[in-house]
Each structure stands twice: as C-alpha cells, then as structure tokens.
Amino acid sequence: MKDLYTQTSIECSALITKRYSTSFSLGIRLLGKEIRNDIFSIYGFVRLADEIVDTYQDKNPVEELRLLKEETFRAIQNGISFNPVLHAFQDTVNTFKISHDYIDAFLYSMELDLTDQTYDQELYEKYIYGSAEVVGLMCLKVFCQDNDALFNELVEPARKLGSAFQKVNFLRDIRSDLMDRKRVYFPGLDIKRFSESDKRNIEKEIEDEFREAQKGIVRLPSNSRNGVQLALNYYRGLLHKIVKSQPSELLTKRIRITNFHKLVLLIRNILQFNSYSYRNA
Q: I need a surface site. Which of 168, 173, 182, 185 has the fewest CB within 10 A?
C-alpha cells in the first residue's frame, strides 16, 4: 500500500496523462490494475520534459531542463521529491530498477530539441532512441516485473515499437514541427520538395517496425499485452490515414484519429483479448 503522498503524486501523473493523451489513457485502461499507476508515472515524467522543450520555449528552457535533470536524479537517489510528478516517477524507477541510462538518453534527446539540428542518420537514430525507444524500455521493465530473461528477449521488439510510434508522430506533426519549432527530423529530407516517394520510404520503415514489434507484443505478460496492442492498433490506424494523404496535406494539417474511431479500436481490442484468453484457457 502506497503512502498518501505517493498515491496522490501518482494521481497527479494520471491526471496529466488523461488530459494530454486520450489514446494513451485508453491503452493504460487495458493494463492490469497492478501496473497502471507505474505507467502513468512514466508518462507524467515524459510529459513534464516535453512541456519544457515544446510549450514553454520562452521560459529559459535550457536552464529548466537542466534543473529537471538535477531534480530527477536527486529524487531517485533520495527516494522522495516534493514535485509530485518526480516523486511518482522516482517511485517507479526505484521499484523496478529502471536503468538511469534510459533517463539520461531521454533527457539528451530533449536537449537536442532546444538547439538547431541538422539530423544525419546517426543523430536521427540517437534522437529516436532517447525520445521514444527508452520510454518503451522503461514501460517494459514494469511489464516484465522481475523477469529479466523475458525483458532481455523483448528489448528489440520494444525498441521497434517506440521507433515506429515516433516516426508516425514525426509524419503527423511535420507541419507544426516545421512552422512552430523549425525542426525537421528526417535526415536528408528537403522539406520544400517533400515527395510521395519520400513519404512512402518513411511509411515502409514504420510498417517494417510494426511487424517486428508485433512479434514481441504476443509474448508480453497477459496484464500488459492488450494495452500495448491497442496502442499499436491506434498508431497503425493513424499511419493508414497518413498513407492515404498527399505530402501536401501533411504540410497543411494534422492527421487525427477521431474519438469514435478510438472507441471502436478499444472495443475491438477487448473482444480480441477475450477471445484469445478463451482459446488459451
């Protein structure tokens, strides 16, 4: 049983998750009750850093990110923080012995967003690893509990899933990244000549990564499999809409999945999971 302050801190992270991401919140609802709070805690921390680098760029984000890094590792070391989001996060990190290297890699990618970058393939892959893949690996530590053998087996599929999610986000947000933040992540891409061929090459990378990720999802513990599957299905639906869109459309509007479509995916996932459980009972 968590103490009152820790439980209240987790609820803060859960509220942040629900306010910022309906799709991610739906996926967490399908996780086992015993692991939901820890995924909320991870997402709350990630959201905190995202806000510094994306929303509050006029508030000395370099210094704020430096302070966040300092406060995060102090919280982990001391086992407490009076920032509720960091307190919830340190509780999860310490409980599941999440590698500090993952946190360092994530914060390094956030730092890259605060400087003008021209991404070559090496830096692009490093950014994706830190901004998305390690978040998946943090969650995987929670999913696998203390089963280190299973965790090691699923590292590569988890990384593929995180990478695919991030590349879908890059395509979905290509307009706002360019117009609002002056960012182009895809290496070698001339955004003024963004073509159907360019778009298709990126889509194929994503489709290949989804296939590899799917091999790992079916091997996840039952209390996490359905939630992760819903997240993959959501992003596949988003990718499907992107595939049907022209490059010029991506540069003028943000592709979205409607709330009704999200609900349909949720119901379909529940039915598929119940069917799978019945067949394997």
A: 182
Report yes or no: 124 and 186 within 8 Å, Cβ to Cβ. yes
Q: In angstroms, rounded to a whole number, what is the distance separating the alpha carbons of residues 41 and 39? A: 5
pLDDT of 187-199, one tens digit each?
Answer: 988 888 899 999 9
Q: What is the pLDDT of residues 100-118, one digit of tens each?
A: 999 999 999 999 999 877 8
Q: At what angle do helices 134-144 and 100-112 cross, to 10 degrees?
A: 150
Q: How confident is residue 240, by pLDDT bands cut at 50, 70 and 90?
A: very high
Structure tokens at 56: 């509050």
Q: Give the C-alpha separation, 225 to 252, whole Å.
A: 36
Closest CA relative to residue 132, chosen from 85, 169, 87, 86:
169
CA dihedral 27, 137, 159, 210 (to 10 degrees): -20
